[in-house]
Design goal:
4 domains; 548 residues; 5-stranded mixed beta sheet
């Protein structure tokens, strides 16, 4: 019996040639190449959540297709991989000039910096090909290429750069060009957060439109990102674009790890983790007909010898998610409570997303959360002319995102110590300290953003989720939105039955009925029986807690 060759585990290595040459453990996704060739699509967009292997797959495509110096062949990188079984596919290996761009690091605070980074990224790719194309350039073309590399070209020249580089490469190699663009929408997400969205959209529309629409030098193009940004925003006129999200069967097993991949990997590295526990933590993403695991989390799980952590959650500050969740309506926050408790909500599915619409339309936000990996779906079906699915949180790791986000709503202005004391006093039944902490908390943390007109219920919905989300391991939470305007009932049931249960009723002060904080809180207590009863009234930033 031959000894199993030692392999290393890679964390953050997304260069395919390095992964293979340095003997890192590799889960074979090489049939992505066959699927792309078989599709005959001119331009393919493959949106997937972050850290789902997009950049590594794109690096693999570059290594496969790109025509290289004969002294540095890449054919051996594919020895033993699944794609090698298909002779018709292998005929394409090393036959094309390839434009390879990744925008994953173009996440700047202002448009000027973003534009500078975009130009730098484009200039680096021009410089990579300069030796091959300089002999076929006219004097004017040479000057333009040099200005692009130097960062002194006009914006119009940068917007036409993808098209022009394609033309130059076709001329130099006498072969059609492949264009690979990784994380095309990373600048768009940053722009939305930092308020320069229209500038980025305008540039990317011109840049991608010129390179992908009517480009006679183009063989095929593959792009990845997180979202399908609506065609009207950025892909206008690119009629041959084919988008394959994880709603479709195509490419559904090419991003993320299948369960067989995970069990093989755990076995190879001698880990004895229960697959049920691993599934609970990191599985649950629906991709076509498959359930897939988060690959970043599995790789880190193995790297850390089987220790369960929220690895994917900790790769980002989740600024966009936090910002978006703060903007959602009270009704949406109620539905999040259902999700955090392990339930499901049914929503219409739309693949095209216009970022500014997220602020205006909850349905767009639900879809953003699906495609960015913070929710998954099941029972995807067409009802009349609309597609629907049941949404749920995929696994324990992602639950941590919501718990952290909700908690942080309250920690932006008040320290962890006060927050912790407030929760501890609540669950131990020390109502006097809880009253003081809660009323202080609402005065100091209820921002003007949370109070819109006379509807501060937004904050109190968030408070329910934020306060109790972090208690879900020790308590069962039951809540019921009553038909009465402004009311919200909550029961906090301890799993340790020796500890007190809590019943809370929120009551908005009805000024028209001449209610005060005192009378509204007393009205909230009516009808509450057993356990510790709290009536909480609120008027703007002021609140009052009464114990029944």
């Amino acid at each position: 019996m031959t000894e199993q060759k030692k392999k290393y585990i890679s964390v953050g290595i997304d260069d395919f040639s390095e992964l293979i040459n340095e003997n890192y453990y590799f889960i074979d996704k090489s049939l992505l190449i066959k699927e792309i060739l078989d599709s005959k699509a001119k331009v393919t967009l493959l949106p997937r959540p972050r850290r789902f292997g997009k950049t590594l797959n794109m690096s693999m495509l570059q290594c496969f297709f790109e025509k290289t110096n004969p002294t540095k062949p890449r054919r051996q990188l594919f020895n033993g991989l699944k794609i090698e079984q298909f002779a018709d596919c292998m005929e394409h290996q090393g036959k094309y000039p390839v434009i390879w761009l990744t925008f994953k690091d173009v996440k700047m605070d202002a448009w000027g910096l973003c534009y500078e980074k975009l130009c730098e990224t484009i200039g680096v790719e021009f410089n990579r090909h300069f030796g091959a194309i300089k002999a076929v350039l006219s004097e004017l073309e040479l000057q333009r290429v040099q200005s692009i590399i130097a960062g002194t070209a006009s914006q119009a020249m940068y917007e036409n750069a993808l098209l022009n580089l394609s033309v130059y490469l076709e001329r130099a190699y006498k072969a059609k060009v492949m264009i690979l663009i990784d994380e095309y929408d990373a600048p768009i997400h940053a722009a939305y957060l930092k308020s320069y969205y229209q500038e980025v959209i305008s540039f990317m529309r011109g840049f991608l439109g010129a390179g992908l629409k009517g480009n006679s030098a183009l063989s095929l193009s593959v792009m990845t990102g997180i979202l399908r940004v609506a065609k009207e925003s950025i892909f206008s006129g690119i009629n041959h674009l084919e988008v394959r999200t994880f709603l479709q069967q195509d490419y559904s097993d090419k991003f993320g790890f299948l369960e067989a991949d995970v069990t093989d990997m755990l076995k190879f590295f001698g880990l004895t983790n229960s697959i049920n526990d691993v599934r609970c933590w990191y599985d649950g993403y629906q991709s076509g007909p498959h359930k897939v695991y988060n690959p970043w989390s599995i790789i880190n799980l193995v790297k850390n010898r089987g220790e369960y952590q929220a690895y994917w959650v900790n790769t980002s500050d989740n600024a966009l998610i936090k910002d978006l969740l703060k903007r959602c309506t009270p009704e949406m926050k109620e539905e999040f409570e259902v999700l955090i408790m392990g339930g499901k909500v049914t929503k219409p599915i739309q693949e095209n997303i216009i970022m500014p619409d997220i602020e205006k339309n909850d349905e767009v936000l639900w879809n953003f959360l699906i495609f960015s990996g913070y929710l998954t779906f099941e029972n995807y079906r067409l009802e009349e002319r609309t597609w629907f699915a049941e949404l749920q949180i995929p696994n324990e790791e992602v639950v941590a995102v919501y718990e952290t986000s909700f908690k942080n709503w309250f920690l932006d202005d008040v320290g962890m110590r006060d927050y912790t004391r407030m929760l501890e006093s609540l669950i131990t039944g020390e109502m006097e300290p809880f009253q003081d902490h809660f009323m202080k908390f609402t005065r100091e943390t209820l921002s003007t953003f949370d109070i819109r007109g006379d509807e501060p219920e937004r904050f109190y919905h968030a408070l329910v989720l934020g306060m109790f989300g972090s208690l879900s391991k020790t308590h069962d939470i039951r809540s019921n939105r009553e038909s009465g305007y402004g009311r919200y009932d909550v029961m906090l049931i301890p799993k340790d039955r020796l500890k007190p249960g809590i019943i809370i009723e929120f009551k908005k002060v009805n000024i028209k009925r001449k209610e005060t904080l005192q009378t509204a809180a007393q009205n909230a207590l009516r009808g509450l029986k057993n356990s510790i009863k709290l009536g909480i009234s609120f008027l703007g930033k002021e609140s009052l807690v009464l114990v029944g």
